[in-house]
């Protein structure tokens, strides 16, 4: 059983909403259809806000189930839909994706980024 799961996205607060800022190419989220600029409204029926996102995503990383339901508002169409992501056990390429995104973030954004992997686990 994996110690931690990875969904393959980095989120960013934007105008009071939690928005997908990056999607790992060929990662779990991309295979499920999640796109950059999708707004995350809820995860497994629990609402996600800018204030709760970091804590929710840390908890989600350790959740026992590999499958997670994201409720998204699609920016392109302003429609709301549920998307199921079959997460992967965390590996070195996932950590590299997150590290690169977080190192790049201060140059592009003044707000914090959240990842579904915030730190390696012991």
CA-to-CA gap between the ends?
15 Å
Helical amount: 25-40%
* Sheet/helix structural class: alpha+beta
Q: Topology as H/E string?
A: EEEHEEHEEEHE
- Widest sheet, order of strands: 5-4-6-7
What's the pLDDT, averaged over the residues? 77
Sheet having the most strands: 4 strands, antiparallel
Short description:
The chain is of the alpha+beta class. The chain has helices spanning 28-32, 53-62, 92-108, and strands at 5-6, 9-14, 17-23, 39-43, 46-47, 67-74, 79-86, 88-89, 114-115. The longest helix is centred in the C-terminal third of the chain and has 17 residues, at 92-108.
Description:
- The chain has 122 residues and is an alpha+beta fold.
- It has helices spanning 28-32, 53-62, 92-108; strands at residues 5-6, 9-14, 17-23, 39-43, 46-47, 67-74, 79-86, 88-89, 114-115.
- Strand 4 (39-43) and strand 5 (46-47) form a beta hairpin.
- The chain is globular, with a radius of gyration of 13 Å.
- It starts with a strand and ends in a 7-residue tail after the last strand.
- The relative contact order is 0.27.
- Residues 107-114 and 116-122 have low confidence and may be disordered.
How do the strands and helices of this protein lay out in sequence?
Elements lengths: L4 E2 L2 E6 L2 E7 L4 H5 L6 E5 L2 E2 L5 H10 L4 E8 L4 E8 L1 E2 L2 H17 L5 E2 L7
Antiparallel strand pairs: 1-8, 2-3, 2-9, 4-5, 4-6, 6-7
């Amino acid at each position: 059983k994996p110690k931690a799961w990875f969904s393959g996205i980095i989120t960013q607060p934007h105008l009071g909403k939690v928005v997908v800022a990056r999607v790992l190419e060929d990662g779990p989220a991309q295979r499920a259809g999640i796109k950059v600029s999708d707004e995350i409204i809820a995860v497994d029926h629990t609402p996600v806000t800018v204030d709760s996102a970091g804590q929710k995503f840390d908890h989600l990383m350790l959740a026992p189930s590999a499958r997670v339901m994201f409720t998204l508002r699609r920016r392109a169409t302003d429609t709301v839909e549920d998307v199921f992501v079959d997460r992967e056990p965390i590996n070195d390429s996932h950590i590299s994706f997150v590290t690169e995104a977080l190192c790049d973030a201060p140059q592009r954004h003044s707000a914090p980024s959240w990842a579904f992997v915030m730190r390696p686990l012991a």
